């Protein structure tokens, strides 16, 4: 991942700041940077969202396609993740440079989101064992400025909120052959319940404390970070540790508690924002990529 | 301004796809009115004083019809009275989606500058574009788009200087739409009330089609079972409960029909349908779903002739007739079924006569179509008294389940019944021959006159202007598509060239001209009239290889040795200058006149010599020479009435031209098949199944002769040997019979078939190359050949075997129809001829013997007629039919095939719609019948539709 070089003096400065709950850009330890969210930015997807967090910029598109359910879970649909690290984000991604990161990210996202606690996968089933909706979630990294997971998770939640799956119903003929029929009204569609979709809060251990939404400089000062996915109720759905350093159980516990608290605080305004945006309907001035 | 249009669709593989299209809105779409100063339209279409006098709307106004008005009332819109109509893009798109023929008609009308029809692309206009709202159906959205556009027009025009008077009238038959429009302040009328308000032409009202709600207001009694919905039918067909097939009504019995079930050859079968209830409102040629009845309900086809004569307009029960034939033997019972639903209607406009209602001042009348397979149609008209005795055209609007007859509306008055022009028009309409004048769109693709050959053209072509090329055709031919040349080479071999008009140079693939020609398929020759496939400028001028003018040609040049063996074949596009256009007779005279020794005559003699060798070779291989009595009318130059009639004569020169055309066709067929084995357009003539020859063998046997039919060669040989002393016409009669045993030759695409053999010509491969002016198949062959020799570029459709196969189907259909139309025209002229001649006594021969009748051919007129020995209302004479022979014994006299008889021939005009040539026997004399020959010895040479029945192959002497 994109890294910056930080001198020893800078590190000490950051470290001391964090100890006093005062970060380089003026935030407290549990504060996020400024965040912009816009949904419905890519018209040929079924749902999309663009999130910029600081200078991190991610675009998420959701495409719904009809597929066959997994044999083990015949009455559920599923989600597929793909993360594309655009060379726009950082020159390191050029060629196949971003592939490894992309894979790591998408595996993590799969763990976090594709389970029936997060998304109601039963609602994606069309006919058990035969047809279900497969949601392809494509993440495009446009710019990396630290804390990608949080940005991506928010963008995914927003995109899923924005997703409209065409309504279909099954018609059965006398021989039992089933056929999918499509409603001819483009407004006639199903929406997902995104209430339980978790958000990821990544906590970076800096010194004895941990910070939310670390910048690249802060990241360079940290030896280990913990990814915590929480729902709006504060239920932790996934925890993962990154980085070479070690964390003592005490601080892991503390970090999880912080993650839950921050996560809960993140969900409520996010949902309000998304609903407010939707209520604007067609009158909304689209910003898109040039804004 | 950019908007996007989004919709979801299902792909063929079952996936679901979201499609997003960019949709651009503009503000430079003009309103098209002369009044408007705001729009900078250079040549506005809509007139300033749009004057259609209507009592509802006295001021000038423009009309905006909605989709259903166009779909149902296209006949009205096509009337010259209706002008200044605005067609919204929304409406046109819907029309196109729902009915291709109506769309084509409306496009043609828009192209017609006199109509002042304007297309307004409202979907791309910034102010009239609307997006679909949530919960709004596509139809509602379109209706709203129409209202928005109509409102915009109203406001837009009222702003224009001097446009204050001008109004916009929305025509819709939808009550809901109308109310909403009224709320929006739009002037809106129902189509019916508007048309009724027109002062200038009250007759227009008759052409109003009945809309569905009017269709329902009949008497409450339900006569028919409801048709099943399409989804149920499809499910039923899938599971085998119902069968899908084409409905063929019986010509003789209106209560009977046959459904030919679609499917593979093995499961192809016929289902008999009997009784009004079971027919369930299906019409001839409809695609229907039928349900088979249980075996005990099966019946046999009745032999009774039943015509729907129920003069009373209303629904009197005719059920009693239905049960007449239930007592038939079990062995001849046929699978019987009933129609449960209609999959596809194949209605067309029908020609026929009005039977005026007995009640005076009634506006509902019955219409009797000429085609006996079509039931009578109830129409509403106020001008019935004017229409009696006229042929009229009627379109069916629907057949509600509580009505005895389908409902329709009057479209067009074709003229006096029996009139020459009227009947010709009827023949063309009934045979689905496209005969309207070419549209502006088509004509726009013609080369600009004056037209000349440029240096550029000559550079890419072989310059053959120096050669002594000449053409030989029937007299009066203006569309000369072939010419020949002949010269001796230095090595003592001969060079023979066949030059065919290069029509594909003028008709470029895909344009309107090409599409029109592809649709017409063939030029139709009627007696005294020709319906061109391509506009006259091409057919009679630029493409016609007339003498002394330079023309483009597609040449096929052979080097041949003395015994007419081909040494080398060469195809090229060329420029030629014909030295002479001769008739067959003129060419013959030149060949025979020993005093003439000019270049042309020399060439003709050389060609003639080679042609004889070619013919001998062909006959050796087993080519058949068949015969059918063909007549030619001598037309009075003033009245265009037939004054005399004689059978066509064949000369040596006919056969000379024919031989080289055959040779060219075969050479070209080989070439294009070699180059394009998957998509060559070829012509085949399948060998008939052996059972077809039964009647021929039997007939010959009765005269003690043996006909071998194992191979074409054997047949040709035995026909040549079949002579009877003192009966010179016998051989011709046999050949006529043999002709009737043949199959129809058809076009096909080489990639779709494996059997290429041409039976009649005994050639393994054959195509049509030599008449591109009058056959579309030849144009395709020209294009293929041009690509093969690198003279022209190809295009995707040419190489698509499925598209080619579809095209072949159309060409085969058009050719068949053209032939029927030709025969019908001959039959009609024969009638005219006999009308003027009165009663004649003529010699004839018995061509067929049937169970209750004999069919007689009069060679002098090539006329065929049936003499019946049974009649409905008279006691029948004693008749015995024997299948051996076959022979028929009537009151002691036995009729054999080929017997010579004497008959009186006269025109029977007692039924004005189906006039007949009536034949009655005079010799031999049948005693029982002598007291009133007219009632018993009736005949039927019923005009018009008779020709369709016979599946005879007619070989034209000058068409190869």
Short characterization:
The complex is a heterodimer of chains A (291) and B (960). By secondary structure, chain A is α+β, with helices and mostly antiparallel strands. Chain A has helices spanning 8-19, 99-113, 148-162, 216-220, 249-280, and strands at 35-39, 47-53, 56-67, 78-85, 125-127, 131-143, 164-166, 168-172, 178-182, 189-191, 199-206, 209-212, 224-230, 236-242.
Mean pLDDT reading of chain B: 80
Distance from first to last alpha carbon of chain A: 26 Å
Beta content of chain A comes to: 25-35%
Largest sheet of chain A: 6 strands, mixed
Shape of chain A: elongated
What structural class do the secondary elements of chain B suggest?
alpha+beta
What is the CA-CA span between the terminal residues of chain B?
60 Å
Q: Assembly state here?
A: heterodimer
Give Rg of chain B in angstroms: 32 Å
**Structural class, from helix and strand content of chain A?**
alpha+beta
Portion of residues in beta strands of chain B equals 15-25%
How many DSSP helices of chain B?
A: 27
The overall pLDDT of chain A, averaged over residues, is 88
Helix content of chain A: 25-40%
């Amino acid at each position: 991942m994109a890294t910056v070089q930080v001198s020893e003096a800078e590190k000490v400065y950051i470290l001391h700041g964090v100890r006093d709950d005062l970060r380089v850009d003026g935030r407290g330890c549990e504060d996020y940077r400024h965040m912009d969210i816009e949904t419905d930015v890519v018209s040929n997807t079924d749902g999309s969202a663009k999130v910029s967090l600081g200078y991190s910029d991610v675009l998420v598109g959701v495409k719904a396609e009809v597929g066959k359910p997994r044999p083990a879970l015949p009455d559920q649909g599923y989600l597929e993740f793909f993360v594309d690290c655009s060379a726009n984000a950082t020159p390191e991604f050029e060629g196949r440079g971003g592939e490894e990161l992309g894979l790591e990210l998408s595996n993590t996202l799969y763990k976090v989101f594709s389970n029936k606690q997060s998304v109601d996968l039963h609602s994606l089933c069309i006919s058990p064992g035969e047809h279900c909706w497969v949601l392809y979630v494509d993440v495009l990294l446009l710019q990396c400025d630290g804390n990608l997971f949080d940005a991506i998770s928010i963008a995914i939640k927003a995109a899923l909120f924005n997703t409209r799956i065409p309504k279909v119903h099954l018609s059965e003929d006398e021989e039992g052959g089933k056929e999918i029929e499509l409603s001819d009204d483009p407004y006639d569609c199903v929406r997902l319940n995104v209430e339980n979709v978790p958000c990821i809060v990544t906590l970076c251990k800096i010194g004895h404390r941990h910070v939310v939404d670390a910048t690249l400089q802060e990241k360079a000062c940290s030896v280990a970070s913990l990814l915590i996915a929480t729902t709006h109720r504060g239920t932790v759905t996934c925890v993962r540790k990154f980085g070479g350093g070690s964390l003592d159980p005490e601080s892991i516990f503390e970090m999880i508690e912080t993650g839950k608290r921050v996560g809960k605080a993140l969900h409520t305004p996010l949902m309000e924002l998304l609903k407010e945006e939707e209520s604007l309907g067609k009158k909304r001035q689209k910003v898109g990529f040039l804004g | 301004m950019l908007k996007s249009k989004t919709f979801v669709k299902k792909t063929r593989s079952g996936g679901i796809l979201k499609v997003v299209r960019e949709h651009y809105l503009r503000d430079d779409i003009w309103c098209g009115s002369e009044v408007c100063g705001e729009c900078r339209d250079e040549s506005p279409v809509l007139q300033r004083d749009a004057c259609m006098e209507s009592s509802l709307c006295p001021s000038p106004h423009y009309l905006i019809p909605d989709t259903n008005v166009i779909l149902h009332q296209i006949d009205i819109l096509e009337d010259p009275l209706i002008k200044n109509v605005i067609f919204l893009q929304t409406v046109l798109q819907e029309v196109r989606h729902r009915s291709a023929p109506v769309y084509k008609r409306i496009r043609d009308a828009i192209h017609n500058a006199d109509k002042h029809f304007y297309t307004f692309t409202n979907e791309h206009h910034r102010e009239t574009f609307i997006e679909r709202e949530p919960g709004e159906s596509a139809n509602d959205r379109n209706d709203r788009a129409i209202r928005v556009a109509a409102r915009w027009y109203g406001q837009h025009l009222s702003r224009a200087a001097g446009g204050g008077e001008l109004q916009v009238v929305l025509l819709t038959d939808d009550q809901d739409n109308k109310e909403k429009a009224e709320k929006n302040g739009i002037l809106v009328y129902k189509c019916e009330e508007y048309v009724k308000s027109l002062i200038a032409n009250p007759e227009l009202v008759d052409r109003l089609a009945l809309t569905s709600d009017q269709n329902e207001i009949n008497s409450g009694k339900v006569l028919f079972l409801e048709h099943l919905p399409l989804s149920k039918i499809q499910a039923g067909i899938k599971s085998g409960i119902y069968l899908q097939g084409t409905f063929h009504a019986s010509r003789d019995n209106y209560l009977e029909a046959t459904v030919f079930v679609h499917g593979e050859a093995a499961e192809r079968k016929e289902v008999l349908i009997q009784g009004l209830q079971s027919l369930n409102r299906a019409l001839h040629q409809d695609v229907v779903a039928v349900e088979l009845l249980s075996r005990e309900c099966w019946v046999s086809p009745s032999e009774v002739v039943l015509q729907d004569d129920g003069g009373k307009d209303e629904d009197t029960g005719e059920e009693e007739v239905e049960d007449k034939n239930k007592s038939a033997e079990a062995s001849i019972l046929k699978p019987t079924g009933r129609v449960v639903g209609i999959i596809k209607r194949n209605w067309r406009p029908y020609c026929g006569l009005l039977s005026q209602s007995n009640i005076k001042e009634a506006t509902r009348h019955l219409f009797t179509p000429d085609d006996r397979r079509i039931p009578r149609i109830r129409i509403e008209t106020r001008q019935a008294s004017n229409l009696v005795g006229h042929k009229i055209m009627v379109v069916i609007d629907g057949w509600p389940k509580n009505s005895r007859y389908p409902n329709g509306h009057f479209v067009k008055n074709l003229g006096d019944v029996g009139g020459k022009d009227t009947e010709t028009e009827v023949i063309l309409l009934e045979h689905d021959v496209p005969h309207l004048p070419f549209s502006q769109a088509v004509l726009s693709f013609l080369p600009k006159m004056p037209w000349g050959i440029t240096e550029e053209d000559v550079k890419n072509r072989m310059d053959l202007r120096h050669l002594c090329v000449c053409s030989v055709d029937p007299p009066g031919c203006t569309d000369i598509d072939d010419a020949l040349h002949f010269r001796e080479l230095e090595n003592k071999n001969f060079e023979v060239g066949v030059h065919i008009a290069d029509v594909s140079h003028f008709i470029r693939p895909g344009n309107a001209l090409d599409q029109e020609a592809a649709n017409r398929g063939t030029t139709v020759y009627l007696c005294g009239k020709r319906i061109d496939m391509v506009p006259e400028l091409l057919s009679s001028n630029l493409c016609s290889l007339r003498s002394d003018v330079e023309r483009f040609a597609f040449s096929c040049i052979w080097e041949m040795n003395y015994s007419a063996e081909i040494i080398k074949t060469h195809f090229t596009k060329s420029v030629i200058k014909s030295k002479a256009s001769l008739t067959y007779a003129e060419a013959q005279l030149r060949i025979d006149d020993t005093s003439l020794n000019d270049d042309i005559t020399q060439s003709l003699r050389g060609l003639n010599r080679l042609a004889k060798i070619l013919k001998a070779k062909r006959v050796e291989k087993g080519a058949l020479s068949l015969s059918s009595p063909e007549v030619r009318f001598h037309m009075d130059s003033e009245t265009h009435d037939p004054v005399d009639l004689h059978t066509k004569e064949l000369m040596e020169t006919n056969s000379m031209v024919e031989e080289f055309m055959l040779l060219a066709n075969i050479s070209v067929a080989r070439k294009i098949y070699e180059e394009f084995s998957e998509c060559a357009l070829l012509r085949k003539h399948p060998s008939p199944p052996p059972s077809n020859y039964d009647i021929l063998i039997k007939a010959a046997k009765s005269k003690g002769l043996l006909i071998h039919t194992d191979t074409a060669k054997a047949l040709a040989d035995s026909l040549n040997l079949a002579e009877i002393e003192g009966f010179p016409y016998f051989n011709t009669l046999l050949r006529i019979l043999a002709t009737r045993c043949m199959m129809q030759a058809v076009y096909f695409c080489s990639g779709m078939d494996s059997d290429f053999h041409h039976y009649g010509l005994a050639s393994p491969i054959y195509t049509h190359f030599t008449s591109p002016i009058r056959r579309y198949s030849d144009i395709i062959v020209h294009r293929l050949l041009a690509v093969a020799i690198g003279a022209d570029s190809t295009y995707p459709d040419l190489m698509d075997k499925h598209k080619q196969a579809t095209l072949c189907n159309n060409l085969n259909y058009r050719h068949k129809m053209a032939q029927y139309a030709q025969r019908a025209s001959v039959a009609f002229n024969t009638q005219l001829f006999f009308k003027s001649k009165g009663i004649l006594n003529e010699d004839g021969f018995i061509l067929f013997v049937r169970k209750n009748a004999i069919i007689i051919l009069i060679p002098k007129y090539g006329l065929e007629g049936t003499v019946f020995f049974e009649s409905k209302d008279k006691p029948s004479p004693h008749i015995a039919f024997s299948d051996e022979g076959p022979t028929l014994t009537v009151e002691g006299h036995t009729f054999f095939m080929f017997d010579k008889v004497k008959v009186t021939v006269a025109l029977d005009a007692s039924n004005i719609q189906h006039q007949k040539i009536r034949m009655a026997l005079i010799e031999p004399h049948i005693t029982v019948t002598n007291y009133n020959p007219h009632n018993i010895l009736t005949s039927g040479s019923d005009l018009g539709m008779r020709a369709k029945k016979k599946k005879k192959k007619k070989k034209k002497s000058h068409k190869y």
